[in-house]
Amino acid sequence: MNRRFQIGDRVTVKNATTMFHTRTQAFTRGKSGVIVEHRPDWVIPEDEAWGRDTPERGGRDEPFYVVRFKQKDLWPNYTGFDVDTLETEVAQRWLEPAKEDQQEGTP
Amino acid sequence: MSQTHEHDHEAHAPIQSASQISEFEVLEMAVRELAIEKGLFSAEDHRRFSEWAESIGPSGGSKLVARAWVDPAFKERLLADGTEACKEVGIDWLDPTGTGTPSDYTYFYVLENTPQVHNVIVCTLCSCYPRPVLGMSPDWYRTPHYRRRLVRWPREVLAEFGLHLGPDVEVRVHDSNQKSRFMVMPMRPEGTEGWTEEQLAAIVTRDTMIGVALPKADWTATSSPSAG
């Protein structure tokens, strides 16, 4: 799969449901952040969980990214300071270009 | 004479196991027993592996940080490719299984603290931890209490560890939810000018590499807190 996002791009984690296994935390879904690092292509956990842990065994690999979120964008009434952030790795299928209306805190 | 004994079996409280065995522990035992029965490995192989894996400890991480403090070229290599730089202190993330055991994965990134950024690690989904360099995680690291609170109230949790950071310092939480493992490289503290790599390594304790503490010139994890 081609890499879709570049470092510095603003992205939103899809607010999707999962039928079984994922490692995309619920607290990041629907939230926007910025791509700060590229990771290699990895087999997605949604496949790994079923023993499809390599492409040869049917696991789908795709680009991963490190996404940095502002803590105040993740949590309503965040009690720390505006500078605080959280970083985590996200598979490409979970990301879409940032919806700018999200910046206003619309649900 | 009758062999029946007559003392009261209800005289003492029932002996209780310290903790209940979890479903995952039962599952691990079942899979292990099957593997032994099938000859994939022996019970002794398993015991040896566990004994080795549990003996690792955080000294490898301390060495990495101390060397980076005294050797800028090594620091550059460590930040660029953590897994590769580990080999320079004798840690091979692929040893002994070729698939990253005793970690579950082999992507390792070192997070450098600066006067502007303080890093701290957590795994909200389970207990991912850079075991080849830090050994087994502390019990508290694996509790839901730490995992769910660090991402939501990082400054409050750090304060519970005695660490207070000002509003000019960005607290950056790293939730290791996928295939990478992380370790914090703290800043070299004052009062350590001219120290050897070995002296420096002694003050780079486990907690400073998780990011819940800062190294101090007068503190090593092996000194008794009552000393001095």
Give the topology, please.
The complex is a heterodimer of chains A (107) and B (228).
Chain A: E1 10-13, E2 32-43, H1 45-48, E3 61-70, H2 71-74, E4 85-91, E5 95-97
Antiparallel strand pairs in A: 1-2, 1-5, 2-3, 3-4
Chain B: H1 23-37, H2 43-54, H3 59-70, H4 72-80, H5 82-86, E1 107-112, E2 117-122, H6 131-134, H7 144-152, H8 154-160, E3 170-175, E4 180-185, H9 197-203, H10 206-210
Parallel strand pairs in B: 1-4, 2-3
Characterise this structure:
The complex is a heterodimer of chains A (about 110) and B (about 230). Chain A has about 110 residues and is mainly beta. Chain A has one domain: SH3 type barrels (Roll). Chain A contains two helices and five strands. A five-stranded antiparallel β-sheet of chain A has the order 4-3-2-1-5. In chain A, about 30% of the residues are buried. With about 230 residues, chain B is an alpha/beta fold. Chain B folds into two domains: about 35 residues, no CATH class; about 150 residues, Alpha-Beta Complex (Nitrile Hydratase, Chain A). In chain B, about 35% of the residues lie in helices and about 10% in strands. Chain B has ten helices and four strands, in the order αααααββαααββαα. In chain B, the strands form two sheets. Chain B has a two-stranded parallel ribbon. The longest helix of chain B has 15 residues. The N and C termini of chain B lie far apart (about 65 Å). The model of chain B has no long low-confidence stretch (mean pLDDT about 90). Chains A and B meet through strand 2 and strand 4 of A and helix 8 and strand 3 of B. Strand 4 of chain A pairs parallel with strand 3 of chain B.
Short description:
The complex is a heterodimer of chains A (107) and B (228). By secondary structure, chain A is mostly beta strands.
Helix content of chain A: under 10%
Head-to-tail CA distance between termini of chain B: 66 Å
CATH architecture of the largest domain in chain B: Alpha-Beta Complex
Total DSSP E strands of chain B: 4
Please report the number of helical segments of chain A. 2
Shape of chain A: globular
| The CATH homologous superfamily of the largest domain in chain B | Nitrile hydratase alpha /Thiocyanate hydrolase gamma
